[in-house]
Amino acid sequence: MKKIIAIISLLFWVAGPAVGASELSKINAQIKQTEQQNKKLEQQVKTSDKEVSKTKKDLVRAADKVSSLEDQRTAMAKKIAELDDKREKITKEMEKNRGRISDAASGVLFVASNPGFNTNDMRDYVLMASVLTGVAERLDAEIEHAHNQVKELGKIRDARAIEKEKLDRTAKKYTKEKNKLDDLLRTRSAQNKKLKDQHSALKKKLRELSARAKSISELSAGVGSSEMSADSHFSRRKLNLPVRGRVVTRFAEKTALGLVSDGWRIRTRGDALVMAPADGVVKFADGFRGFGKVVIMSHKNGYNTVMTNLGSIDVMLSQEVLAGEPIGRMNSDKPEMYLEVRRGNKAVDPARLFKEQ
Fold first, then answer.
1. Same-domain check for residues 220 and 294
2. Which domain-ending residue is among 112, 147, 164?
3. Alpha-carbon torsion 211, 343, 293, 251, what sign?
4. 227 with 300, same domain?
5. Are 237 and 157 found together in one domain?
6. Residue 167 in contact with residue 80, Cβ under 8 Å?
7. What are the beta bridge partners of residue 287?
8. CA distance 203 to 196
9. Domain extent at residue 148
């Protein structure tokens, strides 16, 4: 910039001092103004980058809290349902027990009010005494059983009340954390507006690829992955699963159709939060036939992760995402994710990379 000013100054000095001084003054003023504007823009870019980075970190923390609370609330609701089932069974058993107690009591009363034996006949006396003793013992046993059932029912009611109180107590906290997460997602969406505007052509290209691909593996290979690198740290470290749930089909196991699985099937709760398993870039975020909404991410060292059956997607193409950052939610009607990990053209056993919860 200083060289330009010096050259311009020399030219104007040669052209003439009167004209040169006036024009040079104007140009100098414009240059200063441009420099100030550039500084402002640079500062805005830095501030914007910082805000985006902060939003991402906040999203990771918020997603972890929301996912943990959802897990806790699911476990509490399940426990309450189990206690309700137990209470119903005991209540039905108590009804039957009432009938048995009534029958036993009627037997004692009948024998007591209709003595059909002669006290002079010792054999009849012993037999009748045995009958009365047996009926009385049965009555005592039924009454004891009923007493235990009443106590058990009381314990169930107390346990249910405790679980219900816990569930109610987490409701406000869950709502607060969920609202915070939703606000952060909206902020991220606004920050990514520029990214949205730039990727209409890429979206079209990926839709064409999706239409041509015959399988999810072919689709993953088609979107490409990060370049191979000598960094093997990614392949050694254990990552968190993208969704909390139970692995029901593992890598290389036979599926219900008799095919060998190239990934894991993870049974989740409906609407479960899906998070990025590792830092990476979103390569595909759209529907794919038979797999619902699909997100494919590219990670370090040439790895791709494919996550299927999402009900909603909260990320865009080419978006850089941190590990643990929310990328969507599972489909409530089909809460089972198919997770596939690929490196180049080969499927990799997720057990090498993922921690099971």
1. yes
2. 164
3. positive
4. yes
5. no
6. yes
7. 293
8. 10
9. 66-164
Residues 326 and 185 sit within 8 Å (Cβ to Cβ): yes
One domain, residues 160 and 219: no
Shared domain for 103 and 231, answered yes or no, is: no
What local confidence, expressed as pLDDT, does residue 248 receive? 92
The angle formed by the CA atoms of residues 235, 305 and 229, to the nearest 5 degrees, is 40
Residues 6+ positions from 319 with CB-CB distance below 8 Å: 192, 195, 281, 282
pLDDT for 293 equals 94
- Using alpha carbons only, give the angle 290, 293, 295 rounded to the nearest 5 degrees: 115
The ranges of the chain with pLDDT < 50 are 1-5, 7-8, 10-14, 19, 41, 45, 117, 126
Cα angle vertex 66, ends 162, 313, to 5°? 140
Residue 272 near residue 66, CB atoms below 8 Å: no
Instruction: Say whether both 159 and 208 belong to one domain.
Output: no
- Quote the pLDDT of residue 12: 46
Helix (H) or strand (E) holding 326: strand 326-330
CB atoms within 10 A of CB 234: 19
The CATH number linked to 271 is 2.70.70.10
Q: At 264, phi and psi to the nearest 5? A: -115, 145
Chain centroid offset of residue 83 CA: 26
* 226-276 residue pLDDT tens: 666 656 666 666 788 999 999 999 998 887 777 888 999 999 988 899 999
- Contact partners, residue 177, CB within 8 Å, separation at least 6: 62, 65, 66, 69
- In the block, tokens 């972890």 appear at 64
**Based on the domain organization, do 155 and 236 belong to the same domain?**
no
